Amino acid sequence: MTVAMELRRIIINEIDDQQIVILKEVEGERSFPIVVGLYEAGSIDRRIKGMPTIRPLTHDLIANLVEQLGAEIQDIVISDLRDHTYFAKLRIRKDGELIDIDCRPSDAIAIAVTIKVPIYVIEDLLRDVIEDED
Amino acid sequence: MTVAMELRRIIINEIDDQQIVILKEVEGERSFPIVVGLYEAGSIDRRIKGMPTIRPLTHDLIANLVEQLGAEIQDIVISDLRDHTYFAKLRIRKDGELIDIDCRPSDAIAIAVTIKVPIYVIEDLLRDVIEDED
C-alpha cells in the first residue's frame, strides 16, 4: 500500500552535504524525512521556486526525454529501505503498460516537483520511520 | 559538420564552482574546454574511474530510462554557443527515427562517458575556440 505525500520543507545546510527533504502525508499528519545531497536539494528548491534557467537542467532533461519518447511519468514511489538507504522508482506509462525505473529518492522527488506528479511512500516505510521516532 | 572528440582531462577546482572539462579531437590535436559545475564534473569523473554506486545516479537513470523506453542514445553533439553558453543535444534513435533532445554539455558528456557513445562538436564551434586562443 502506498501513501500520497507532498513536499513540506527542504532544510539546506551548507556545512556538510546532508540536506533534508521533508515529505508530509497529503491526508494526514505523518512526515517522512529523507537525506539528499546538496545538488539534489538545490535542484528541488529551484523547481519549487520556479527559478528560470536558460538550458534544461538534468531533471528537465529527464522530463523532456520521457515525453519525446512517447511515454508519461505517472508518479514516483519511495519503495524500499535497505542498509539505511532509501530506494525509489519512477512509474512510467507507455503504450498502456506501466514500467518501473529504479532511481534515488532525490532524483524521483526532483522529477515529481518538476512535472507535478504525485509522490508516494510505501506504507510500511512510513510506519517504520514513525516507530523509530517514538 | 561535426568533429569526433574524446575526454582528455577534468580540472576540478574546489574553490569555486567553475570546473573545466577538456575534450580533444580524436583524429587531431585541437582541444575544446567547457566549464561545468562541480556536481557535473564529479559525475563525469566518477564514471571515468568506474566508481561503483549502490543506487543508480542521475546519469545512470537517464541511460536506463532511454533503454527501457525502447530507444538508444546514438551520440551527443555540442551544437551551439549563444551568449557565452554552450548548448548540446542527445541524439536518440527510436524506431528508425533520430530524435534530438536539448541538454547542457555537462549532462551530455556525463551520459556519453556513462554509456560509451561518441562525443561530437560542431566544426564551427571548435574553430571559434581555436581562433579565440590565437
Write a structural description.
The structure is a homodimer of 134-residue chains. Chain A contains four helices and seven strands; from the N terminus they run βββααβββαβα. With 134 residues, chain A is an alpha+beta fold. Chain A has a single domain, classed as Bifunctional nuclease domain (Roll), CATH 3.10.690. Chain A has a seven-stranded mixed sheet. The longest helix of chain A has 11 residues, at 38-48. The first copy, chain A, is globular. Chain A starts with a strand and ends with a helix. The interface between A and B is medium-sized, with 29 and 29 residues.
What's the short story on this structure?
The structure is a homodimer of 134-residue chains. The first copy, chain A, has 134 residues and is of the alpha+beta class.
